[in-house]
Amino acid sequence: MPGRKTPKKPAGKRTPQQVARTARKTLAGLADPVKARGAERYFKETVKCYGVAAAEVHALARELYDGVRSDWTAEEALALCDILFAAPELEAKAVGALILRRFKTTFPPGFFAKAKGWLASDLLSNWASVDTLCPDSMGAFLVRYPAYVAKIKTWAFHPNRWVKRAALVSFIKLARKEEFLPAVYEISASVFDVDDDLVQKANGWLLREAGKADPGRLEKFLLARGPAIPRTTVRYAIERFPETKRKALLLRTKQS
Fold it and tell me: For the whole model, what pTM was predicted?
């Protein structure tokens, strides 16, 4: 990675604690207070940043993963996330989530409760952290354990906004798969009455992805439910439609 020396790999198996310390030390060495303040102002909620570019965060996660890939299982990656998600800085949380996703084909069933615990306890209390964890890792988990699709539907009714958002964005990469569309539309409809822009935007994002698989189904859904759907959700959902159809859908779904 440009601008710093690559940490030397110590002999023997590295523990999650050691990797977490290396991650935070490296991020601190790359910190840019000016960029950090700019990044923090990008969020409505309070977040803390090192001010490290996304490309460098991804490169660090890849490098740290390469150092443990032959020794670790998903259990060590989950333990690493327990540590890094508790860190205040956005980039530290991202490194944990980015390393974790590389073990997604071997997640144990316990990952589901673990993820819910992180979210419900506000360890991932911003949209960026939720969106780094859920589309890849939780999405892969639902493919591996489809019985949990019914369980994640209940997250939409959780009082925590991050759990609610996770219920939606966990299906982002699954929304183009026909077998997941019934769950996508059911979860979408279940949060129409939630007055939270981060939930409404996530819902629109999810519907837009579902529309890529079956635009006709999305259009019918919007027309049938239109007045009940928050306008923010509708606007995000129809972004892929031609302009004339977007205007027509906005008009036909408008509350009277």
Answer: 0.92
User: Residue 51: is its pLDDT beyond 90?
Assistant: yes
Determine the structural domain holding residue 13 and report its residue range: 1-106
Upper half-sphere CA count for residue 10 (Cβ side, 13 Å) = 7
Residue 5 has pLDDT above 70, yes or no: no
User: How far is 131 from 148, CA to CA, in rounded Å?
Assistant: 19
Token pair of 215 as six digits: 């635009």
121 and 102 in a common domain: no
Q: What is the DSSP letter of 122?
A: T
- In a shared domain, residues 68 and 120: no
Tell me the per-residue pLDDT of 158-178, one tens digit each, with 9 for 90 and over: 999 999 999 999 999 999 999
Supply the CATH number for residue 20's domain: 1.25.10.90
Quick one: 124 and 247 in the same domain? yes
Please state the domain count of the chain. 2
